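for the writeup, i need someone to sanity check this before i put it in the appendix. the sequnce is what the collaborator sent (i think, or maybe the updated version? ugh). structure was predicted straight from it, no edits. if anything looks off just tell me and ill rerun, i have time this weekend
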Amino acid sequence: MRYQDVVDAIKQWPLDQQLLLLEEMTRTLRTELASNSAPSPRPAPAMWRGLLKTAAPAPADQDLEDAYTQYVMDKYL
């Protein structure tokens, strides 16, 4: 049976049967897509591990405060 033959036959069905077919097709596709989907990705923190790691030591709090103060002064003055 060709695709168009199936479509034409379904159009002749009562609306409740068309809806039942639609629900069954949706359920089947959802199951098929779930089984074919890629494995779930790793949690985000696990992917970020080491992302911001540098060879230089972390700046001191006072250095960060001075840098922010300088940024704000440059931006607004």
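The chain is about 70% helix and 0% strand. The radius of gyration is 30 Å.
thx in advance!!
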